[in-house]
Design goal:
Layout (H helix, E strand, L loop, with lengths): L1 H19 L14 H13 L6 H8 L3 E3 L3 H10 L36 E2 L5 H7 L4 E7 L11 E8 L3 E7 L17 H5 L4 E8 L14 E9 L2 E3 L38 H14 L7 E4 L2 E4 L21 H7 L5 E5 L5 E5 L8 H7 L20 H10 L13 H15 L2 H10 L27 E3 L9
Antiparallel strand pairs: 1-13, 2-8, 3-4, 4-5, 5-6, 6-7, 7-8, 9-10, 11-12
Helix pairs in contact: 9-11, 10-11
């Protein structure tokens, strides 16, 4: 009995020694590491699955400066070891906001004689005519969500300046359906006669997107409440948590009734309106970060947690991308219904004995290839699945890589299988174990001379590990 206990204790101790030495036995990248060396070392670090010790192990090989493509690992390791929160829902310090006062808005959107008030200029239609590159405006009826008034009628103004973009959105009062004018365009006065709230999004363009040496471009969203004819200025931004269930990032392309893909009784918009929408969406489709907020010495990421399980991710060998799996899940729901604001409804049904291209569906399921928080925001676990249904089935703007290759039956199969795959336990476990959210940054720009030369090197592509700035996208 004693021998058995001794053996168990000895085995346990040996196992602990092996585990504790798992990092110690790792080989650091060579003295002059290439991008491939850095990627390989990063992969090996993640494979150990000891995220609490990530930062200390990176320091062993990079005692002075760490590669910029390791920022996400350092941030995640610090969060897992309890040094800071993994995410924040809003700014801790309002002094970090890029816009501090209504006086920083474009001329005409504030009145110096009316402090803390935001105005929609009465001459906005004339401004667009005089300078259509700076001012882009459209009144439309939405098929989806938009604004804080839950209205089908929306009015959007995009103002582009060299340093910042400003997006204003209001909700004109609806004309009752019983009114003979309900299907006619609204007059300028009716458009400007809006409901209770103004959505304001400001984009700081002074930083370069996807530039490793700076934070990515950040968009900040505010909800301004109407008081009389004007809107009260609000320094604080809207809580990100109230937005990111429908927005993968602060900006989202508009989808008016009658635009692009036409459903049921929709009337196709004019060519002029199509061109306007395309111009506006060029701005709104650009991925912007929710940003970070300072808490003590740390920059905490706003938005969904970086390790939040996303829709549309699987390992290369996952059975969820096999023809067998897709055949099984493709007909889970034979009828799918989407309901937008103000009663907009879209119904679609699988045909009898549907012909489904299983290979195309499998390819289309790879949402994470683009929605990886680098190119576009992730379809995280708290993201509304209704919005995925909308993009795939209603306005059919996704998946972008197979836009014209999918039949409606294929699209229904895609929606069904994305939902089924998201609930796959093995897939969810692999997401945390393999941590692909830590490997999206390219190491191509990280150049080193030698580990001992980091202090002398002026252009290493690295940053001091103690002062690592968080990449907020």
């Amino acid at each position: 009995m004693l021998n058995k206990v001794f053996l168990i204790i000895t085995y346990s101790c040996a196992l602990n020694i092996i585990i504790s030495r798992s990092y110690a036995n790792m080989v650091c990248p060579p003295g002059i590491p290439t991008a491939e060396d850095l990627v390989s070392f990063r992969k090996n670090l993640i494979k150990k699955n000891d995220f609490k010790n990530l930062v200390s192990e990176i320091k062993k090989c990079f005692p002075i400066k760490a590669p910029l493509c390791y920022q996400d690992m350092i941030y995640y390791g610090e969060a897992m070891s309890g040094k800071h929160d993994l995410r924040a829902s809003n700014y801790y310090d309002d002094s970090e906001l890029s816009i501090q006062s209504e006086k920083e808005l474009p001329e005409g959107f504030f009145d110096p004689q009316k402090p803390n008030k935001v105005i929609i200029p009465k001459d906005i239609f004339e401004r667009e005519k005089q300078d259509p590159k700076k001012y882009q405006i459209l009144q439309y009826q939405t098929r989806s969500s938009g604004g804080f008034d839950n209205s089908i009628n929306l009015f959007i103004i995009v103002v582009k300046t060299p340093d910042k973009d400003f997006i204003f959105q209001t909700s004109p009062h609806e004309t009752p359906l019983s009114n003979p004018r309900s299907n006619l365009p609204l007059s300028e006065n009716e458009i400007l006669n809006s409901k209770n709230n103004l959505t304001l999004i400001t984009v700081d363009k002074t930083t370069k997107p996807h530039d490793k040496t700076t934070k990515p471009q950040v968009a900040q969203l505010r909800k301004l409440v109407k008081m009389g004819e004007d809107y009260n200025w609000e320094t604080k931004t809207e809580s990100v948590d109230s937005c990111f269930s429908c927005h993968t990032g602060p900006l989202r392309a508009i989808s008016p009734k009658g635009y692009s893909e036409i459903n049921s009784s929709e009337k196709k918009l004019s060519l002029e309106d199509h061109k306007k929408i395309e111009a506006i969406n060029l701005t709104l489709e650009e991925f912007k970060s929710w940003g970070t907020t300072k808490r003590g010495q740390y920059d905490i990421k706003l938005g969904a947690a970086m390790n939040s399980q996303p829709y549309g991710w699987a390992t290369d060998s996952s059975k969820t991308r096999s023809e067998k799996f897709i055949k099984q899940c493709s007909t889970n729901e034979k009828q799918i219904r989407y309901k937008g604001f103000s009663g907009y409804v879209f119904n679609v049904n699988l045909t009898e004995s549907p012909a489904i291209n299983y290979k195309n569906v499998a390819l289309a399921m790879n949402c994470y290839e683009c929605h990886n928080n680098r190119l576009h925001g992730a379809l995280h676990s708290n993201f509304s699945f209704d919005e995925i249904v909308f993009k795939v089935l209603v306005d059919r703007s996704m998946p972008f890589i197979l836009l014209s290759s999918l039949s409606m039956n294929d699209r229904i199969a895609l929606v069904n299988c994305l939902k089924e795959e998201f609930g796959n336990r093995k897939n969810r476990r692999k997401w945390i174990e393999e941590a692909p959210f830590l490997t999206t940054a390219s190491c191509d720009g990280d150049q080193f001379k030698h580990n001992n030369d980091y202090k002398e090197s002026k252009d290493t592509g690295a940053v001091p590990i103690e002062n690592m700035k968080v990449n907020s996208n």
